[in-house]
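Retro notes, structure queue

What went well: the backlog is down to a handful. What didn't: a couple of records were mislabeled last round, so from now on we paste the full input next to the output in the thread. Example, using RpoE DNA-directed RNA polymerase from uncultured delta proteobacterium DeepAnt-1F12:
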Amino acid sequence: MTVAETPLRLGLQRFARSVDTEAVLQETLLRVWQCAPRFEPDGRPDGLLRLGHTIARNLAISETRRARTTPVAPDALLGMGAEAGYVQPVESDPHLRAIIQSCRAELPKRPALALSARLRSTGGVTDSELASNLAMKTNTFLQNITRARKMLVECLENHGVRLNVERA
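Corresponding output:
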């Protein structure tokens, strides 16, 4: 089953916007496990895996039909909240923003560079690429991120901002 999990998960990617692919994968693995004792090989390789792909695809299609949902763009969701009577997100606190900027300005050069690079990338660039762009080794980059994070937490707490952050 562990060998089959990755190919099945990859086969479900196209359904990820409309169904809970993790639930479909788990149900698929359960059904393959239940069918395995009665499975009759057809002589071609990976028979159980092929059966798993068929089950996964059929389950995902059934779930898509059952849910009858259409994906909505994230921007459209913001407007929907007001129509339904939900509270709109509150604008950021200018005082908190000033404290954060002040704490970031106090960071040493290398941790500040690493943190800024990671924030600018918004998760679209790997740490190794960010490190390379800053002429750092990946491990050094990650150490600088850790240092920046710890220093920011300490600085924010010194300014009265209490965070629920685990400390290593």
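Agreed that this is the format going forward. Reviewer comment attached to the example: The mean pLDDT is 83.
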